[in-house]
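Deliverable D2.4 — example input (structure tokens):
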């Protein structure tokens, strides 16, 4: 959640957010993107001060106050344990408890129909019946198996609770569609080709039974990057990966229960790894092909990728990232839970998301041409919680291409 706060902060400063057509999210990222969606029009009020030199970043006063501060306030509290205790008696009560917290702390009674038309915000959950990606949009919801129906009156908090219903303790959210008019949506259905499932066809006579109550769990179960819903959309694709990965163990336990848990964790890592590696390899193929006498490039989509658990890849035109590797590892090893975080860790997570996105931008071709050569920021949203090694940062500033 907080890593993506930093990511969006930097994209906002660079003036990229107003150019976005779609924002797709899962799990903790949905908490952040929903706040962004509610405050979208007010955030656009951030403008560079009069007389500020061209190319300088806009102010982020509104973004800080309307997005960062409420999410940091939420991170001051542990909300998963009370929800889990409520779910001991009735499993679906846990997701309901999380939804109530979201309403009270962030979204009030806002409904999906109140969200902006552009960009289109997409909150992804996983349909426990089939494993398909269930998407909530401003006026549409559903999946490729059950079809799509109207979503406008659904509370934003309920959509986010479904997207963050992490199994087994915070799930499922038992969702009851209000609208009985179901249909196929070609614009959405096209993305289903990214994820084919064996045995996923349904007898039409069974559909009504499946549509009565849809058990939804965390969107990261089916697609931990949230890109299935937008894979076929035109334009540059920016992927911010805030998901955890199973850590290596020299001597993993081999009893049946521990072994099963370990295997399930490893299996769960594979879809996001595959999607990320596919995207990265397509980018490399494009770049290699472009270098070969201007040959036609079959894949010519611009984009960038950054990861909460990986140090930024060195870019040939910039000095190596001056982040403190041990600090980044410590941030990556924080539990992905809805539990209270000390303020210093909150600020470092935001700073890390800010810098991770910033260092990925040189891989976006449009920011590396003509007069738009990307200037790396040596400033962080919270300088008192720096993630940089200072002497290495000073070297980067001295070498140029850094805005000190």
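Example output (designed residues):
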């Amino acid at each position: 959640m907080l890593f993506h706060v930093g990511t969006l902060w930097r994209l906002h400063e660079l003036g990229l957010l107003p150019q976005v057509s779609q924002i797709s999210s899962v799990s903790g990222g949905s908490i952040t993107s929903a706040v962004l969606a509610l405050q979208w029009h007010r955030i656009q009020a951030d403008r560079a001060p009069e007389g500020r030199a061209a190319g300088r970043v806009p102010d982020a006063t509104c973004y800080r106050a309307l997005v960062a501060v409420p999410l940091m306030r939420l991170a001051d509290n542990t909300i998963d344990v009370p929800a889990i205790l409520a779910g001991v008696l009735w499993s679906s009560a846990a997701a309901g408890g999380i939804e109530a917290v979201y309403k009270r702390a962030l979204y009030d009674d806002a409904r999906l129909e109140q969200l902006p038309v552009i960009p289109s915000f997409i909150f992804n959950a996983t349909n426990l019946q089939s494993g398909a990606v269930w998407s909530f949009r401003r006026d549409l919801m559903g999946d490729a198996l059950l079809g799509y129906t109207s979503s406008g009156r659904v509370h934003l908090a309920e959509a986010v609770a479904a997207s963050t219903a992490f199994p087994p303790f915070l799930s499922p959210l038992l969702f009851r569609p209000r609208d009985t008019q179901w249909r196929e949506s070609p614009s959405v259905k096209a993305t289903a080709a990214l994820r084919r499932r064996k045995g996923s066809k349904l007898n039409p006579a069974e559909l009504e039974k499946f549509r009565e109550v849809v058990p939804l769990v965390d969107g990261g179960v089916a697609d931990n990057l949230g890109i299935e819903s937008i894979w076929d959309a035109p334009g540059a694709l920016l992927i911010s990966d805030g998901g955890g990965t199973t850590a290596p163990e020299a001597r993993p336990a081999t009893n049946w229960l521990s072994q099963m848990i370990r295997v399930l964790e490893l299996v769960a890592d594979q879809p996001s790894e595959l999607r990320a590696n596919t995207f990265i390899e397509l980018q490399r193929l494009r770049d290699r092909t472009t270098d070969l006498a201007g040959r036609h490039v079959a894949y010519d989509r611009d984009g960038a990728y950054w990861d909460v658990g990986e140090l930024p890849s060195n870019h040939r035109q910039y000095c190596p990232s001056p982040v403190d590797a041990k600090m980044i590892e410590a941030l990556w090893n924080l539990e992905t839970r809805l539990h209270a975080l000390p303020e210093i860790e909150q600020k470092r997570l935001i700073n890390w998301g800010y810098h991770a996105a910033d260092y990925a931008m040189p891989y976006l071709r449009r920011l590396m041409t003509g007069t738009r050569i990307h200037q790396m920021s040596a400033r962080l949203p919270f300088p008192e919680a720096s993630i940089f090694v200072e002497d290495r940062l000073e070297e980067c500033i001295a070498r140029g291409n850094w805005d000190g």
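The mean pLDDT is 85.
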